[in-house]
Amino acid sequence: MNHGGSGRRRVLVVWVVLAALIAGIASLEYRNRSRIPEGAAEKIHGAEGSRMLLPAPVEELGAIELVREGTLHRFERDASGAWFYHGLHASAQPAHAHQTDPAQAQIIEKAFAALGRTRMERQFKLDVQATSYGLSSPQMIILVYGKANPMPLAQFAVGDVAPDKYSRYVLPVGGAHVVTIADYQITNLLDLIRAVGGSSTPLRGIEIEKRR
After folding, report:
1. Number of structural domains in the chain
2. Is 204 part of a structural domain of the chain?
3. Which structural domain, as residue segments, surrounds residue 175?
4. Which terminal residue of the chain, N or C, has fewer Cβ atoms less than 10 Å from its own Cβ?
5. Which tens digit of pLDDT belongs to each residue from 186-210?
6. What would the mean pLDDT of 101-129 be, rounded to a whole number?
7. Burial class (CB in 10 A: 0-12, 13-18, 19+), 66
8. Whole-model pTM?
């Protein structure tokens, strides 16, 4: 297995996403905040998932990548469907096999199950001159992949916590609006990175459907 080439391709994908994000932000115009139109959303996602953030159920995803502070964290499914943490490998690192750790797989599964229930709350047009959303320098990039598909189904840039302290600004890359989601969903992903990425910060319990 050529992990060096794979790693370089993933880094290239990150740069492409960031370039697309910058281009998207530069093309957007400001508009007052409004609720997401239910009818328009249902045309895209269907009645049941009209406000869901992800473009497909988690069960249909093959990989998720989280880019945080310049580091790409990749999570994949093995042949049985269990999640494992892949990460990136240096080009000089020899080929190796991945073995799924059952305890780690449960942590990843729990975090992504919660992410799969994420709903869009409010919708905004982006003012390219404003910094209120924190998207000029995203705190995280999320890429989601279908099974056996090297191209991401969707990419999201994560901005600041909203003034209500319960919501987080997120820009679906390539879309025309910024949306808010529950901030604890991003907290869950940060805790997941700390849990599997070698940080000494302890993992907090994954929060499920907690609101004010």
Report:
1. 1
2. no
3. 3-88+101-196
4. C
5. 999 999 999 987 543 334 444 444 4
6. 89
7. buried
8. 0.70
**Which tokens is 66 given?**
């989280």
Residue 148 lies in a domain: yes
Distance CA 59, CA 29 (A): 35
Residue with tokens 């599997």: 196
Q: Spell out the SS3 assignment of the chain.
A: CCHHHHHHHHHHHHHHHHHHHHHHHHHCCCEEEEECCHHHHHHHHCCCCCCECCCCCHHHEEEEEEEECCEEEEEEECCCCCEEECCCCCCCCCCCCCCCCHHHHHHHHHHHHHHHCCECCEEEECCCCCCCCCCCCCCEEEEEEECCCCCEEEEEEEEEECCCCCEEEEEECCCCCEEEEEHHHHHHHHHHHHHHCCCCCCCCCCCCCCCC
Tokens of 99: 């073995």
